[in-house]
Design goal:
heterodimer, A: alpha/beta, B: eight-stranded mixed beta sheet, 33% helix, globular
Amino acid sequence: MKTLLQHGRISLALHGLRAAGDGRPLLLLHGRGQCAPRAVPGDVAAWPGPIFALDFTGHGESTVPRGGGYSVEILMADADHALAHLGGATLLGRGLGAYVALLLAGARPKDVRGAILCDGPGLAGGGPRPVTPTVVTPPDPTPRAPDPFAMIELARDVRPPDYAASYVLQATQFSELDHPISVCAVERPDWLAAVIEEPGVLVTTIADALARYARVA
Amino acid sequence: MTTASTLQDDVDPASIAYPGAQAPARRRTVVSGGLRIAVHEWGDANAPPVLLAHGGFDFARTCDVFAPLVAAGGYRVVCWDQRGHGDSEHAELYSWEADVRDALAVLDSTTAEPAPFIGHSKGGSLLTQLADACPHRVTKLVNIDGLPSRARHPDVAEHERTRMLAREITGWLDHRRRVAGAERKPGTLAGLAERRGRMNPRLSREWLLYLAAAGAQRDGDGWRWKLDPSLRFGGFGPWRPEWTLLRLPGLAPPLLGFLASVSEPMGWDTTEDVLRPHLPPGAEIVVMPDTGHFIHIERPREVAERVLRFLAA
C-alpha cells in the first residue's frame, strides 16, 4: 500500500509494509541512494505495530526535483510529513536515514517515540567540517531516482558533532522517554561519536531498541 | 517620478518610473540543472562582462539604478534572478550549493574568460564562494555588505539556547507542512511596496513602488511578488559564520568590500574590526557612513564610482 504525501512541490511515497498490528507505527528511513524496502526487513520483523517506509525526495517513487538543492534538513521535513500523517511514530534510520532520524527526534520530541540509528549508506555525510569548496554538477543530470544531484549533495553535507549533539539535547530535554535515542550503528563518524557521549543516549542492538520502544506508550 | 495617483491599483505599471532607473537592455534564459534561470543584461553586448548577484529575497532588477552606472563605465553587466526569485522558475528545492551552481551556469553562459564579480548581501557571499571554488574564473571581487560576521545568538544559557533552536526548527517544519499550494498575499502595488518597506525601512516609497512594478505580477485578484512563497526568512543548519571568515584570507582575486554602518532587519551587521584579521592581502574595505544594508541602492553613484575605479586599477 502506497500513500502520496505532498511536501511543497514534492510528492513523497510512503509505503505501508505492514498495515495491521498493535500499537504505534514504526517508520523506516533509508540510506543515501537507497529507497524504501518493499517488504518488512527481517531485523525489524519483531516490531508489534504497523510498519511504514518513506522514500525521501529524489529517491524511490518520490518526485525527482530539477537542479538539486538537497540538504539533510529538507529530508528531515520529508520525514516530518510522514510523522504528521502517522500521528507519531518510532523511527528507525539507516545511514543517511539515521542522521535524519536524529534530527527529527530533536525537532519533534513529543511525536517521535524513540529513534534507532543504524549503519547504512551515507552515515558519515560530508564530515565534521567543510572541505575545499567546489562546484559539482552530475555528468548526466537526467532526472532519475536516485537523483544524481542527491548522490553528490548528500555526500557533502557537513555534520559538526556539536550540531548533532544539539538535537540530542532537544530530544532529551523535551521528550518524555528516558532514552529517546538508541544507537545501534557500529560505524562511528564524528557526529555519532558525539551523540553517544550525551546523557540519555542508549547504545544497544536493533532488537533491544525495538523491544524497549514497543513497550513505551 | 511617481505621484500619489500612481499608487492606485489600476495604475499601469509601465508608467511607474524612478530617477536613474533603466530596465535591462537584454533578457535571456539559462537552464541550470533543468531549471530556467532569467538573466538580465545592461550595457554593450560586446563589452567585457561583469557578473552581478542580487541579495536574498531581491531580484536582478533591484539593480536597475546601480547596474546601468557600472555598464556606463564600459561593461556588460550580467545579473540573474536566483532560483525562486524574480522571473526565474520556482524550484522544488533550494540550497546554497544549488545557488552557487546556478551562478556558475550563468557565468558559463556569459564567458569562458575570467571576469569581475560583484554581489550584494547573499549575492556577495555566493560570489565569494564561487571565487574561492573557481579562482581561475574571477579577476576581481566586489562584495557589498555580504562579508561574513560572527553574528549568532547572543550569549544565553545552554538550556535556553536549546529552547531557541527548538523553536526555530519547529517553526520551519510547521512552515514546510503548510507550504504545498501556498500563495503570496495579493494586494495593490502600493500595498506590496508598503509591505516590503517594513524590511527595507531606509528605502524610499518611490523606489519600493518601482520595485513592486518590476518584481510583482498581476493576477486576477491583485498583485503578488513573484518570489516563491515557499522561501522563508531565517533558518538554521550546521554552517558557522566563522567558517566563511576563515576562507577570506586565501581568496585569490583582489577584494573590495563595502560595509553598512546602520543596522537594518536584513543587514549582516558585519564590522571592520571582526573582518580585518581575516582579509586577504591588499583588500579594501569601505565603511559607508549613514548607510544601511542596501548600500548600492541608497548610494548607487558613490558605489559605482568606487567599483569602476577598482575594476580599472
